[in-house]
Each structure stands twice: as C-alpha cells, then as structure tokens.
Amino acid sequence: MNKLATLHGKRWISRCYSSLSSQSLRVCVVGSGPAGFYTAEKMLKAHQGAEVDIIDRLPTPFGLVRSGVAPDHPETKIVVNQFSRVPLNERCSFFGNVSLGSSVSLSELREMYHVVVLAYGAESDRVLGVPGEDLEGIYSAREFVWWYNGHPDCSDLDPDLKSTDTAVILGQGNVALDVARILLRPTTELAKTDIAEHALASLQESSIRKVYLVGRRGPVQAACTAKELREVLGIKDLYINILESDLSKSAADEEEMKNSRIQRRVYEILSKAARSQPSHPISGQRELHFVFFRRPEKFLHSDDSSGRVTGVRLEKTVLKENSGSGRQSAVGTGQYEDLGCGLVLKSIGYKSVPVDGLPFDHHKGVVPNIRGRVLSNTHTEPLIFENGLYVVGWLKRGPTGIVATNLYCAEETVASISEDLDQGVLTPTLPRPGREGLQQLLDSKGVRFVPFNGWEQIDLKEKSLGSLKNKPREKITRWGELLKAANRESVTEQ
Ligand SMILES: Cc1cc2nc3c(=O)[nH]c(=O)nc-3n(C[C@H](O)[C@H](O)[C@H](O)COP(=O)(O)OP(=O)(O)OC[C@H]3O[C@@H](n4cnc5c(N)ncnc54)[C@H](O)[C@@H]3O)c2cc1C
Ligand SMILES: NC(=O)c1ccc[n+]([C@@H]2O[C@H](COP(=O)([O-])OP(=O)(O)OC[C@H]3O[C@@H](n4cnc5c(N)ncnc54)[C@H](OP(=O)(O)O)[C@@H]3O)[C@@H](O)[C@H]2O)c1
Fold first, then answer.
1. Where, in this chain's numbering, is NADP(+) bound (predicted)?
2. Range 95-124 average pLDDT
3. Scanning 69, 297, 321, 343, which has its CA 20 to 30 A from the CA of 194?
4. In this structure, which residue's CA is closest to atom 8 in ligand 1?
C-alpha cells in the first residue's frame, strides 16, 4: 500500500472510530472482581464514547474482595468504595445474576459487543492427585473460604469442626494462613467482623485445637508474605511449633534469599518464632505447627463405612535445584509418616475454568494471551488473536497476586485494547446492540438480572442486619434471599 493510501486508511479508521466514539464503543466485562472493576474504570476513562457493561454470575459484585478476603481484614475491603463509584457513571451498567455459559454464551456476547473482556477469575481448585482426595472431611480452601465468607454456593458446606481436635492445612501460601487464622483466632474477635453467621456459630462450637500447616518445601520457600505470617503468629494465646532442624539453610537457599526480600523476611520471622517458642503448650492452649519438607502421599480413613478422613500420609522431601531456574523443587525420599486429623483443607492454589468457545491452556489453567489479547491458540506461527476478545486478572495471569496487582493487569489489557483501536486491528465500524441487546436476550431467556441498585438494596439490608449485632454487615448467604433482598424475588438463580 502506498503512503497516501495508508494515510487515507488511517484517517478513515480514525473517522469511523471517532464517530463511533460519539455513538458508543460497546464493551462487556465478564466478572466484577478487582480485575473487572479496574478494567471498567480504565475503559470508561480512556474512551469517552465507550459504554461498559459488567456482568457477574452472582447477584453481588466485587468477586474475592467479598468472598475471598478474610473477614478480619476490613481494611482490604475499603477498595469496594472505589469500585462502587464505577457503575454510577451513566455509561456503565452492572448485570448481576448473569452467568457466562448458562445465561449467555461467549459467542452471543461477542456478537453483541465490539469488545469482550473476560475477568471471571479462578473458581475451581488445583488437585493433588493422591489417593483418598475425595474422602469426607477434606475440602479445598476455596470452598472453606467461600463458606466462612457467605458465598451462596457454599452456605451448606457445613464442615464438621466438632468431631476432631486436629486440622491439617496443605500449602503454606497466604490463603493457607487465612484459613489457619480463622480456625485458631478467638471467636470473640471474629464476632465483630462480617464473617457469615453460620460459620461463626460453627467456629464457636469448634473442637479444633491443633492446626498443622504443611509445606512440601522449606521455610525459605514458604509462599506466604511477612505481614500475614506475623498476624497468624500474633494470635492471642497460641502455642507455635517450628522445628529448629527445619531452619538449616543450604547454599541454594542462601542464593534464593539473596534474590528475594520477601523470602528473607519470612525466613527471619519463622526463625525468630522458633527461637522464642516455649518447649510445650500450656494445657488447653491452641497450637499451630509448621511442618516443612513433607508432601501428601495419600489420605487415610477409618475401617468403618463412614468414609471420613482420619489422617494424611506424608512423604519426607529434600530440595533439588532445577538447573537455571533459580527454583528448588521438592523430591520425595521414600520415607513416610502419618499425621492424624479429622479435617483437611487443601490450600494448594485456585484454578480457572474454560467456557465454550474460549481458547484455554489447560496445563497453565489460563486463557492464552499476550498482554491481555486472547490468542486463538499457542501453537500457530504467526500468532493469531481472537478479534475483540481480551482477558484480565486471575484468568489472564493465573491465581496469584493481591488486589492491587489487578490494577496493573487491567492497565495492560486496556492499553492493548486502545492500541488495537488506534492501529485499526479492532475496527468497530458497525454498531452493535450492546446493553439493549443483552437486555433483550436475557428477557427472551427469562433471566432477570440484578442491576447495581439491586445490589445496593442487598448492601443496605446486610448493613442493617449487621448493626443489630455490632458487625459491619450480616451477609445474606442464600441465593433466594439475595434475590429477594435485591427485589428480584421472582428471579431464578443462574
Ligand atoms: C482467599 C483469598 C484471600 C485473599 N485475600 C487478599 C487480601 O487480603 N488482600 C489482597 O490484596 N488480595 C487478597 N487476595 C487476592 C485477590 O482477591 C485477587 O488478586 C483478586 O480478587 C483477583 O481478581 P479477579 O477479578 O481476577 O478475580 P475474582 O475476584 O475472583 O473475580 C471474578 C468474578 O467473576 C465472577 N464470575 C465467575 N464466573 C463467572 C461466569 N461464568 N459468569 C459471570 N461471572 C463470573 C465471580 O462471581 C467474581 O465476581 C485473596 C485471594 C483469595 C483467594
Ligand atoms: N493477605 C493477602 O494479601 C492475601 C491473602 C490471601 C491470598 N493472597 C494472594 O492470593 C494468591 C493465591 O494464594 P494461595 O495461597 O492460594 O496460592 P500460593 O501463594 O500460590 O500458595 C500455594 C501453596 O500451595 C503449595 N502447593 C502447590 N501445589 C502443591 C502440591 N501439588 N502439593 C503440595 N503443595 C502444593 C505451594 O507450594 P510450592 O511453593 O512448593 O509450590 C504453596 O505453598 C497469592 O498471590 C496470595 O498472596 C493474598
């Protein structure tokens, strides 16, 4: 193409785009967690003509800020004030109770919107793949966290905390620490938080006294961060057990610590805790045991027909350097020991799930992408992108990172969208039905969505229920009641 034609082409695209800007670039963001809200906020700011609709399968917004962040971390939840300002923009709408997959398909969304940004997180679990993983009394941390945070999908989980005094948590990341803290913290302290009523009642009657936090690697590799570790170690009247012998470091450990301030701090805190621990717990005291260099080999159960877990067989491990990666892996030694328990929480990481028509990397558990642009598949050269389809948050990067990480992640995805519009890769010349189209489609399928003011009704109700008990809110934990509080009684859950 000659220079003039290129210039004409660019002018034409930019004319189309600017006329479209005044009409509306139709954008749909799927998922209203941090990644979804940051993306919507950035899109509205960067594209003054854009209309942005956010859909979520729940009647409530905010993703893991509501259903993941621990109830005793209210300061982390303040970010919802910022998110709540986004749908106040007249160019933005929230559609709760609308599930990608069952209420609306990906291809329907892509037909109705110029741009679809997937931000639906990671709502499944990594599996260990060891025998007995499905025994009664074994839960993923995700389910347990959803239960104590009042997610409507887990309000009936009802884990038995009364028939055992010992819980084993597999994994040593921040989620594992959250779960340990909730099990061990005095319930008088939890009672002032927004913990779900059913979970508080169950914890008040809990017999769990000992919690084992089991890591397949050593204290240098514990995946938690310093603030969260200090917090669990600081629980009132808690006996901490860390074996001094686990704290010896290899040259490879020293090298890892040299390169990571977080690992250094975590190791120092663990060492200090090990040095200052009394030799025995006082009678009746709750206990937290850090177990390093052990990986689960199988789950044990009693001979009766209850199918309940009675323990975990652990294999001792040693660390082996992966050449060039700077990472050491756990390798089994063939030596085993059994740890008795009546409750197991697997906290080994979350996992995203694909929907129909979406390219998905099953190995990594993410949507293949480059800077948020969805790749049709990872094996073709040249790379082929899915036009108008983008991804952000845990679905894009995998299940790691704090709330703020999703801000940078959203900036990157929105920058890719803007670049694609500027460069004519994305040419939204034809009008798309967007919001009106979605409403019609949902109507035709009998899906009645919960708008943002429906959520505001839920919010008001929860706060008023909470104020009666000196709690910031009493979460409504059942689908039917949530929809009723949103004035959507006749709505069916999606
Ligand atoms: C237990 C736990 C505790 C955490 N605590 C902290 C903390 O204290 N501080 C901190 O900074 N970070 C914390 N994090 C990390 C933080 O929560 C995540 O980084 C962040 O929530 C990821 O954002 P996201 O938007 O990608 O996913 P999510 O927050 O999971 O949001 C995904 C949204 O998509 C919706 N959705 C799912 N499937 C569909 C579908 N099919 N159709 C429509 N909608 C769908 C979900 O309902 C949800 O609202 C925690 C994480 C966990 C797991
Ligand atoms: N307060 C907060 O800021 C907060 C709170 C909660 C969560 N978060 C964030 O949310 C993200 C997710 O947290 P997470 O704890 O779910 O994940 P994570 O940090 O990735 O930790 C996962 C843990 O599981 C272990 N693990 C993984 N596969 C295993 C296997 N097959 N067998 C045994 N152990 C295995 C890991 O050990 P290896 O290291 O050996 O792989 C690690 O200890 C993190 O980024 C976290 O920081 C933040």
1. 172-175, 216-217, 228, 401
2. 98
3. 343
4. 69
Q: What separation in Å is there between the alpha carbon of 380 and the centre of ligand 2?
A: 32
CB 411 within 8 A of CB 37: no
68-73 mean pLDDT: 98
Handedness of CA 370, 375, 378, 383 (dihedral sign): negative
Any idea which architecture 3-123+353-485 has in CATH?
3-Layer(aba) Sandwich (3.40)
pLDDT at 397 over 70: yes
Closest ligand to Cα 37: 1
CB 364 within 8 A of CB 349: no
Average pLDDT over residues 363-380: 92
Query: Does the C-beta of 172 come closer than 6 Å to ligand 2?
Result: yes
The response to whether residue 69 sits with its C-beta less than 6 Å from ligand 1 reads yes
Confidence band of 492 (pLDDT split at 50, 70, 90): low
Which residue intervals of the chain bear CATH 3.40.50.720?
Answer: 3-123+353-485
- Atom index in ligand 1 nearest the CA of residue 120 equals 34
In the chain the first and final C-alpha atoms are separated, in Å, by 50
Give the angle subtended at the CA of 178 by the CAs of 351 and 464, to the nearest 5°: 100
Is 459 near ligand 2, meaning CB less than 6 Å away?
Answer: no
- Identify the three-state secondary structure at position 458: helix
Q: Among the CATH numbers 3.50.50.60, 3.20.20.140, 3.40.50.1000, 2.40.50.100, which is that of 124-350? A: 3.50.50.60
Q: Does the pLDDT of residue 429 top 90, yes or no?
A: no
- Does ligand 1 lie within 6 Å of residue 95's CB atom? no
Q: Model confidence over 173-226: pLDDT tens digits?
A: 999 999 999 999 999 999 999 999 999 999 999 999 999 999 999 999 999 999
Mean pLDDT for 140-169 is 98
Average pLDDT, the chain: 93
The yes-or-no verdict on residue 327 having pLDDT over 60 is: yes
Ligand 2 atom 3, closest CA: 402
Q: Kindly identify the ligand whose nearest atom is closest to the C-alpha of 214.
A: 2
The reply, when asked if residue 455 is annotated as ligand binding, is no
Residue nearest to atom 35 of ligand 2 (CA): 348
* Closest ligand by atom to 347 CA: 2
